[in-house]
Specification:
Oligomer: heterodimer
Number of domains of chain A: 1
Largest sheet of chain B: 5 strands, parallel
CATH topology of chain A: Cytochrome-c3 Hydrogenase, chain B
Order of helices and strands of chain B: EHHEEEHEHHEEHHHH
Largest interface: A-B, 65 and 53 residues
Helix content of chain A: 40-55%
Shape of chain B: globular
Shape of chain A: globular
Strand order of the largest sheet of chain B: 2-1-3-5-7
Amino acid sequence: MKEVVIDPVTRIEGHAKVTIFLDEDDTVKEARFHVTDFRGFEKFCEGRPYYEMPSLTARTCGICPVSHLLASAKACDQIASVEVPEGGERLRRLMHFGQIIQSHALNFFYLSSPDLLLGMDSEPSKRNIFGLIKEHPEFARRGIMLRKFGQQIIERLSGKRIHSGEWIVPGGVRTPLTKEKCEMILNETPEALKMIQKTLDEFKNRIDKFREEIENFGNFPTYYLGLVSKDGLLEHYDGFIRVVGPKGEIVADKLDPKKYFEYIGEAVEPWSYMKFPYYKPVGYPMGVYRVGPLARLNIVTKCGTPYADKELREYKKFGENGVVESTFLYHYARLIEILYSIEKVKEMLEDQKVLDENVQAKSYTCRSEGIGVAEAPRGTLIHHYKVDRDGKITWANMIIATENNNLAYNMAITQVAKKYVRGKRLTEGILNRVEAVIRAFDPCLSCATHAWGEMPLTIHLYDHRGREVDRLIQD
Amino acid sequence: MDKIRVGIFNLSSCEGCLVQILNLEDILLNILKTFEVECRVLGTIGKSEPYDIAFVEGSVMSIEDEMELKKIRGASRILVALGECACHGGNFLVKDFDVDEINEMFPGSQKWYSHPIERYVRVDYRIPGCPIDKEEFFTVFKSLLLEKFPEQASFTVCSECILKENSCLIEKGVACMGPITRGGCKAICPTFNRECYGCRGLNDDANIDGLLHTFKEKGISIQPYMLPSKKGEVKRS
């Protein structure tokens, strides 16, 4: 068998490597996505008091710290046996919308759009944010401003844009939202709405150019998993787990997120530090499921806000039975989620209740275990802690959004490699397509390596005898 | 004249400091237009060695990290440690987790304790904080372009906190590290009613014994893991 390796993968958050295996007649047999770093979060949290966990685990990731804060704080709420006041929950949700907007904008505008606007085969030294600024300055600026809108929500609530562990705490949040800051954010929402709608329109106008990508970039049936609200609407903070099958049928609904271990199994493969979660009732590896924007829009029938619902109806035309399969359309789903988040921010801020000053409940350690689940920008995120009588962590487990998609990454890059790799020679354009499908998932490897390792992307090509016949390194 | 070449690198980190640089929204476009910036995450790598200024985020946690860091040092004129991980080893140091155990779980992972980059290479300047303060980054960046090394803040978080007229957390019986921690963060944590946990490292003339004495006087209990002595102190397996 021959093997091709891409190392490092660029324009993704973290370091990664891809290996492509060839058959005797030089056709692609399989491709694998490797995570090669290891950061040991679950280990070093042991012995720390539980109330430090939100602040500590936020450091898993500088891109989606709010999601970690939320999942962690929710686990701690249970340990403290405390019910978060409505005011606190509202502000936690508000901050999370800010997070989703900024994180999705980072992926779409900074990392992925160079491929979409400049072309998969365009000059690699220009196929990045700098090239984008030169060729499409207005578009690049829009991306920067949308990210800013999201980041400023986080900053105005907590004083800090990244790792706001001083603000989201077990029992709620530290400080209420002031009227002044509420108005500041509210005044910016019309502009943000306009920007995302314009981007969505542009994306839809160009989508015909991407027929080939939609067809070949990780286009396969899987299960889809994520949180939905109690009414079955789009949900990012709380609710129940719903699992939808490849034909759009709901295979499980109203699952208790706290019992995740009953329906999510974790397999290990010797060639990657990243674990392989699968849907237990179906088994490994057939129980491959996807999470994140694409999965979330697949498991709901409605978002719950007017503009986003209108877009959702249009979007669902790209699938059958309400299920959209192509990984490439993660981009589309991401844009709809930005739109939804901005609408929700507006809706929340227009309600005076958001200024509620009752934001934190206080308590002492009561329970020995807590499980927090939230929908991070990249998918379902689970924090699970056990503590001793003094409230010190004795055991911690985190299932990271990016990990959930691990099986699907390998299927997706295998599909892309099968389509584009011909014989023993690799070209930069092939390499970039493999990377582009990974970018579509928006893996966050800082997160995924919370326990595991780092990964820039290189492609190695090995022949059927295991000899390396070609190697392409991104440098 | 050639464009000034800037490299931004991450070792083992959360990439939050890099995101803080991206958070310079309004001036980001100008920076990107004016300089040649090399950064793997942004997809611009391998073209612009050597670097006039290299910013390194994250700590050294593996032999790959060490090799990469040494390569960067060899190619850069000025090397800046960015953030708590690069300056002090990061919050990984809260506990010296058992490396042997991890190597048993994942054979061949060759992981060490988390180390500040200064242990391996010469560092010309440090921007502390978790994450870094973007305005501070920009100020330092401008100074470095003029070949100037701005002085590190010589005041503590406590001084900035007082200027903000916050009520004192230690007075309320909370173990706050503000009196011994280097300032420059605008005392953001105490302002939001959360104790300082020393992410910017010890101030030059930090009086640790004095603070411990105060804690004792106020009846604030100290757990061994709260002591800041481990910051910057590193062990290698």
